[in-house]
C-alpha cells in the first residue's frame, strides 16, 4: 500500500477468525476489497457453508483495525475455498493453512500463506504473488478443466514441497518450488518459468515453450533433445521448451 | 391452460398471408388459430397487443440441439458448462455459455419467440439418443434430420443407379430413425475420410464405390422428389471451410437445375457462410458471396441459410469429420472425432471468433452478405448453432440486416481486411421488418414443408410471438438498438395456445411434439430386405436393435406423405 492511501485513512485492515471447526467446506470469495467496506457490510458478506448460504458473521469473528487494504485470516482456513479469487490489489495473510482454489484468477496483490496450501492454487492467475511457507498440493497455476491456458503472469513461491501438475499449459509468470515436487511439471507449457529446488518426476511433456529448471533429480522424456544448454522439446509437438539442470 | 385466447389490437406481420403491419385481432382455440366466430369472446383470455408487433413463432431450421455431437461437445468443454444461467426454481436449472443444456435450449428459444427447432444432423445409429435429447428440450416442437450422404446402402444404390431401392431405403430409414428429411453432409467425403481422404470437388471419386459427390447429390434429389417428401434434400456442401470453396458451392447449387416442385425448393443448401470463400489460401481468402447469390437468385428451386458467424465463443461441430480435423490442425484447439460408423462421421473443435482476426472478421461479413445479397425469399437466418455462434444472437443479426448505420458502426470495430475482401461495406440494402419476419418464420416453415407453422392464417398452430415493437412507428434503420433489444425478449410467446413467456420471463414448461415423416405409402421397404440384411451383417448393431419406436418418443407426430 502506498503512503497516500494510508494518509486518507479510508482503508482498514480486517481480521477474520473461524468461530468453530467447520464440518463441511466453506466457499468464501474473500478479497482485500472487502476490507474497504463498512463493518456492517462485511458482516453481511455472503458465503456458502456446504449447501447453505450464510453471512460472514455467522462463521467468523470479524475485527477491523489498522489502516491498510489488508486481510488477516487467523486460524485454520483449510476448509475455506476461493480465498483471494480474482483479487486485483492489496494483501491477504493466512496465519494457518488454506483451502482449495486459493488465488484463482488473481490479477494483482499478494497472498501469504503461513501454513499449507490445498489443491488448485493460483489457477489461471494473471498477475500478483502467492507465497506458501509450508507445502502445497496438486494443480498449481494450471488451467481449470477445459480451458486452454493456465497461469499467464505473476509469481507463485512454495517454500516446502508440492504435488503433481504444476504449471500445466502456463504461458507466463514464475512458479518456484523450493522443495520436491511430483509428476507432470510444466505439461503442455507454452511460456514462463518453473523452478524446482528439489527432486521431481516427469517434466515438460508436450511443452511448446518456456523454461523448467530443476536442481535435484527429475525424469526426462525421450522426446527431448539434449543440447549444451539443457534438454529441448517436446519434439512430439515441435516444441522449443527448455529443461535446464541447475 | 386457457383453451381460448383473444389477441387484441396487435399489429400483425404475416408474410405467408401477405399481411404487412395491419391492426387486427387473432383468436386461438385448442392450440389452433381460428375464425372470430369460433370462440366465445367472454370466455377468452384477452391479451392486449396494442402497439405491439404480432408474428408467428420463430422456426429454427438448422441448429445442432440434440444428439451425440452436441453432447460430446458438452463433455469435452467443461469450461462452457461453468456458466450458470439459472438455478432451479419451478423450472429446471440451466448452464452453458454457448453450448447449452437441453432445457436451456428450450427456454432460450422461447424467450426469443421461437417455437419450432430442427436438429440438423442426426447420425442414424445415434437416433435414439437424439430423440431422448429432443425429448428433454421443453416448449419447442422438434424434428431431426438423419444424415444420408455417406451411408453405405445409399452409396451402393447410387452406384447401381437403382432408384427404386434408393427410395425404399430413404422411406425405411426415415421410419426407423423417426427422421424428418434427407440431410446430406459432405457427400462421399466422410466415406473417404475413413481412408484418411476427403472429397473436395464434385467429381472426386468416393473410394470403393466408383461414384462421385455429384452422383450422390443428384440421385438423392431425384429420389426425394419422386417420394415428394415435405422437405427437400438438405445439403451441407463438399469442401466446407476451405478458401476457394465457393466454386464447389455454386456447382452444387446448379445440380438442382432440371428438378421442379410446385410447393417448395428441391435443394436447400445450408450454412453457406462456411462454403462461400474465394481466394486460394488463408492469405488471400475473400468473399465468394457474389457468385453464390447470383446463382441462387437466378434459380427458382434452391434456398439457403446463412450460418452467420457471431463474434465470441462458439463450438464447431459438424458431420463433416475431415473438415474438423483440418480446423483442429489450423487452430491447435482440442478435437473430438465422432460417429465414424458406416453411415457418417463428426468432429468437434472449440473456436472463438475475434473481431480483430482477419479471417473471423471475413466470416462475420460473409454471413451478413448472404442475408443481404440473396433474395429474402431464399435465405433463412441461422448461425448453424453452435458453429457460427449462439442462436441467442439472432436479434443482433436481424438488426444488422435492417440497418446500414449499425453495420457501419460495427465495421469500425472489426479488422480492416473485410474492407477489401468483401462487399459488405458497399451494400446499401436494408431489410424490412416484413422481410426479416419472413426469413425467420414463413420461409423456414415453407422450406421444411411445415404447413401449420410460420404463419397466422386460420388453421395454423397457435405459435405466436408478440414484441414490444410498433412496426408502423419504428425506423429499424436508425432504431436498430430497439430491434436488437426487443427481439431478445418477447413480450409474449404463445406455444400451441399456451402463454409460455411474458416479458421475457418463462412462466411455465410445456412439451412440444416431435415430427417425423412416414412415406411408406410411396415405396415399400420390402424390396431392400436382403440388402439390409447384408448391410447389418457388417454393422455395429443388429438390425432388430436399430432405430426408434414411436412409443419411445414423448409426443411423436407422424406426418404421412400422400
Question: Could you describe the 3D structure shown?
Answer:
The complex is a heterodimer of chains A (246) and B (562). In chain A, a hairpin with a 4-residue loop joins strand 15 and strand 16. The radius of gyration of chain A is 19 Å and the shape is elongated. In chain A, strands 5-1-6-8-9-10-11-12-13-14-17-16-15 form a 13-stranded mixed sheet. A four-stranded mixed sheet of chain A has the order 4-3-2-7. In chain A, 7% of the residues lie in helices and 27% in strands. By secondary structure, chain A is mainly β. Chain A has helices at residues 3-8, 39-44, 56-59; strands spanning 13-18, 26-27, 46-49, 52-55, 60-65, 70-73, 80-81, 91-94, 110-113, 129-132, 155-158, 174-177, 193-196, 211-214, 225-226, 231-233, 241-245. Chain A has one domain (72-245). Chain A is built from three helices and 17 strands. Residues 1-11 of chain A have low confidence and may be disordered. By secondary structure, chain B is an alpha/beta fold. Helix content of chain B is 30%, strand content 22%. Chain B has 17 helices and 26 strands. Chain B is globular and about 65 Å long. The interface between A and B is small, with 5 and 8 residues.
Give a short summary of the structure.
The complex is a heterodimer of chains A (246) and B (562). With 246 residues, chain A is mainly β.
Residue fraction in strands of chain A: 25-35%
Q: Helix fraction of chain A?
A: under 10%
Strand proportion of chain B, as a percent range, falls in 15-25%
Number of domains of chain A: 1
Q: Can you count the helices of chain A?
A: 3
For the CA atoms, what is the radius of gyration of chain A?
19 Å
Major sheet size, sense and barrel closure of chain B: 9 strands, mixed
How many strand elements of chain A? 17
| Strand neighbour order, sheet with most strands of chain A | 5-1-6-8-9-10-11-12-13-14-17-16-15
Helix content of chain B: 25-40%
Number of helices of chain B: 17
- How large is the radius of gyration of chain B? 22 Å
Residue stretches of chain A low in confidence (pLDDT < 50, at least 5 long) are 1-11
